[in-house]
Amino acid sequence: MWLGPDEWLVVAEGDAPDLLPRLERAVAGRRAQPSPDLSSSRAIIQIAGPRARARWLETGCGLDLHPRAFGPGQLRADFV
Questions:
Q1: 11 lies in the same domain as 35
Q2: What is the dihedral of CA 79, 40, 36, 22, to 10 degrees?
Q3: I want to staple 32 with a disulfide (CB 3.0 to 4.6 A). Which of 20, 27, 48, 57 is the partner?
Q4: What are the beta bridge partners of residue 7?
Q5: What backbone phi and psi angles, to 5 degrees, belong to 63?
Q6: How many other C-beta atoms lie within 10 A of the C-beta of residue 17?
Q7: DSSP result, the chain
Q8: What's the N-to-C CA distance of the chain in angstroms?
Q9: Residues 6+ apart with CB under 8 A from 65
Q10: 50 shares its domain with 24
């Protein structure tokens, strides 16, 4: 996931003990430094149901969550 101009977050599902060494080999010789597990800094909350958008998300979010701009199952929005 893109976090910023020079910052990416790699997300692995389940145990991936060889992931960090593989990333380190992939970026060897470049201006990059993979960091170990940062999972405690992220949380995933799944909200579902027929009124989930209106009841939970639109109430406390400044983004345009109308289905025209951000439909069901969409993982990201393009910010203008």
A1: yes
A2: -70
A3: 27
A4: 4
A5: -80, 155
A6: 7
A7: -EEETTEE----SS--TTHHHHHHHHTTTSS-------GGG-------STTHIIIIIHHH--S--STTTS-TT-------
A8: 19
A9: 53, 57, 58
A10: no
The answer on 54 and 35 residing in a single domain is: no
d(CA 34, CA 38): 11
Residue keyed to tokens 């893109």: 2
Say yes or no: 30 and 49 in one domain: no
Contact 9, 1 (CB under 8 A): yes
pTM of the entire predicted model = 0.42
> Which domain covers residue 33, as residue numbers?
2-44
Q: How many domains does the chain have?
A: 2
Beta bridge partners of 8: 2
Mean pLDDT by 10 residues, the chain (80 residues): 79 81 90 76 75 74 75 60
